[in-house]
Specification:
By secondary structure, the protein is α/β, with parallel strands linked by helices. Helix content is 43%, strand content 12%. The chain has helices spanning 2-5, 36-40, 50-63, 77-88, 106-115, 132-139, 143-160, 182-196, 217-230, 250-259, 281-289, 302-313, 334-349, 383-394, 400-415, 423-433; strands at 31-34, 67-71, 97-102, 121-129, 167-175, 204-210, 237-243, 264-267.
Length: 435
């Protein structure tokens, strides 16, 4: 086994002196940029049709997103028609910017410019592979040749969007940033920004793709702070994050990246997309929400969002998804249930107090969940929780002796079935065994 381990290369530390990010805190929401319509659409076995894309776009607007990557207009007829449909039917609010991705071909940039005619606010997103492995093994090109590709792209964008009369912003992604030498990532990003030559008030988006999570999150944060410190025209740059989840640490990497001076986050709703998933905005949003930070979005009705996403993708949300999963607010063991019940009893008499319930970091009502979701009875549940169900939903108060009897009856029933007892079934047990 040791011989197999030794074939992998350990990720190097970053030589970052006087790092600042460990002592920072997140105090405001980043710029949110949705890539649902592009990044997770390209990961679906059956990509969305026009009506499905429109339904998702409307959901994103309703939630409050101001930057939405709508797709690859040059990639297919559906993608092109969807872009035109949004523009020609005036479906893009004036305060929403649409973002489009373009691959490295001049005719594709020309086609993309055609698709965006009459659009008001546009981010043109270009990218190319910059990592050591991609350069040496896939493209077999030198660093200079890779830089030339990126700079030529910018020139083509400038050429084909020269008569664009509304707001146009450039975004560049050095793909597989996590596998790219920092000095080279800086050099190619500086070259792109220099070619675009932003005006004093203008911002170029430099988007950092954590295409593959290769390191621990502290090293990723060091990489972001290094870029923040070393990029030439940082005042004219919005530093953006686009994290994936190969090491199951994509939320932590994104949050630490924000501590390391990133300004913007690309994400998707829930987490079902592209290989190991993109940063999940619902989790990020609720992480901020529970820390007194206004996320500047409305995710209160998460069940509606889940329903639309599951309908479009045909992928069910994990029951243990943080915050919004079907069972994430549910306690089964008697010790957890007892703690929650005691807190709820205390809260009734102290309604002005802060949310302090054990095992529940967020009030389910804040995301349109009822407290009934918390109350689930199985063979591990305690007598107090069984009594709480009868009290909370049927106004039946049990004596201590009745609680013990009822608890034993519920345990016997739960041991004989392969599902959770519903509240009405508990009530039936009570009716059939108590006068």
């Amino acid at each position: 086994m040791w011989s197999e381990i030794k074939k992998y290369v350990s990720f190097p530390k970053i030589n970052l002196k006087n790092r600042v990010w460990p002592d920072k805190e997140i105090t405001k929401a980043p710029i949110w940029a949705s890539v649902d319509l592009r990044d997770w659409n390209q990961a679906l076995i059956k990509p969305m049709n026009l009506q499905e894309k429109l339904k998702l776009f409307n959901l994103l607007v309703e939630v409050g997103f101001k930057q939405i990557e709508i797709g690859f207009p040059s990639a297919s007829k559906t993608e092109f028609e969807f872009t035109r449909y949004l523009i020609e039917n005036d479906l893009i609010p004036d305060d929403v910017t649409i973002q489009v991705l373009i691959q490295t071909r001049e005719h594709l940039i020309e086609k993309t410019a055609e698709s965006l005619k009459w659009a008001k606010n546009v981010i043109v997103h270009i990218y190319n592979s910059t990592s050591v492995d991609q350069r040496e093994l896939v493209f077999k090109k030198s660093k200079k040749e890779i830089i030339d590709i990126a700079v030529n792209w910018v020139k083509w964008v400038q050429k084909y969007f020269s008569d664009f009369t509304w707001n146009l912003q450039l975004q560049y992604s050095p793909e597989s940033f996590t596998g790219t030498e920092l000095e080279f990532a800086k050099e190619i990003c500086d070259s792109v920004v220099s070619q675009w030559n932003p005006k004093k008030w203008e911002k170029v988006i430099i988007n950092i793709p954590g295409t593959v999570e290769n390191s621990t999150v502290n090293i990723f944060a060091d990489m972001i702070e290094w870029m923040h410190t070393n990029l030439k025209q940082r005042k004219n740059i919005i530093l953006s994050l686009h994290n994936h989840n190969d090491r199951w640490t994509w939320i932590a990497a994104t949050e630490l990246g924000l501590l390391a001076w990133a300004d913007r986050v690309e994400w998707t709703l829930l987490w079902n997309w592209e290989r190991t998933w993109n940063t999940d905005i619902l989790t990020m949003w609720l992480n901020l929400f529970t820390q007194w930070i206004d996320p500047e979005l409305d995710f209160s009705n998460v069940d509606k969002i889940k329903e639309i996403i599951e309908e479009i993708t045909q992928i069910k949300t994990s029951k243990r998804h943080p915050y919004v999963g079907e069972l994430v607010h549910t306690a089964f063991s008697w010790s957890h249930q007892d703690a929650i019940k005691k807190w709820m009893d205390w809260q009734k008499n102290n309604p002005e107090q802060k949310w302090r319930v054990p095992y529940l970091p967020i009030d389910p009502k804040d995301i349109w969940k009822s407290y009934e979701a918390i109350i689930q009875i199985n063979s591990q549940s305690g007598k107090w929780w069984t009594a709480y169900v009868l009290d909370a939903f049927y106004w039946i108060k049990l004596t201590r002796e009745e609680q013990i009897k009822m608890w034993k009856l519920v345990q016997e029933k739960n041991d004989s079935i392969d599902r959770l007892l519903k509240n009405e079934e508990i009530y039936e047990i009570y009716k059939n065994n108590f006068n």
